[in-house]
Amino acid sequence: MASLNAAVNRMENRTEVHLRPHHLLCIQKFTGHGYDAAFTAFMTALTGLLRSQPQTRITLVQGADDLCAHCPHLCGGVCDAAKKTAALDAAVLQACKLAPDTADTWQTLSVCAYSIILQSQEFHKICARCQWYALCKITEVLKNDTN
Ligand code: SF4
Ligand code: SF4
Questions:
Q1: Closest Cα to atom 5, ligand 1: which residue?
Q2: For atom 3 of ligand 1, which residue has the closest CA?
Q3: How many domains is the chain partitioned into structurally?
Q4: pTM over 0.85
């Protein structure tokens, strides 16, 4: 819990965040529901940062990211649903025509994911097999200054 508190407290000073590609969707659909209290607390702090500071630099990564670091499903540095989550990442990269190591602002990347996926049938094609799909389907996208 101490490391979580430290991570949350450091959040407002962050200028860069490492994200798996499909988390460009999840962050915009987040409404306070998570895998456990620690994950939800970190996700809440992260979404708050990105909504208030959309110029935050995002670097896309393959495998575990800054969010996964606080997830109970990360086991030995690897997601316990690695195949499924890697498929989500690949689908987002393909739909948005992004390279796996793209670095850009949250503003640019979130608008890209929003317009190409979340506002289209791509969302249903990509997300239908996710355990959170029923919730995300009825969730309005979190608004920041950019969308
Ligand atoms: S359905 Fe799953 S992958 Fe898609 S935005 Fe929601 S949590 Fe993320
Ligand atoms: S379920 Fe897997 S990809 Fe999603 S946050 Fe947890 S460790 Fe990361």
A1: 26
A2: 127
A3: 1
A4: yes
Question: Looking at the domain assignment, is residue 125 inside a domain?
Answer: yes
- Distance of alpha carbon 124 from alpha carbon 74, whole angstroms: 25
CA dihedral 40, 45, 49, 50 (to 10 degrees): 0
Residue 146 lies in a domain: no
Q: Which residue has a Cα nearest atom 8 of ligand 2?
A: 68
In a domain, 143, yes or no: no
Residue type, 138: I
Residue 139 alpha carbon, nearest atom of ligand 1: 6
pLDDT tens, position by position, 96-134: 999 999 999 999 999 999 999 999 999 999 999 999 999
CA distance 14 to 56: 8
Q: Which helix (H) or strand (E) holds 74?
A: strand 74-75
- Domain coverage including residue 115: 2-137
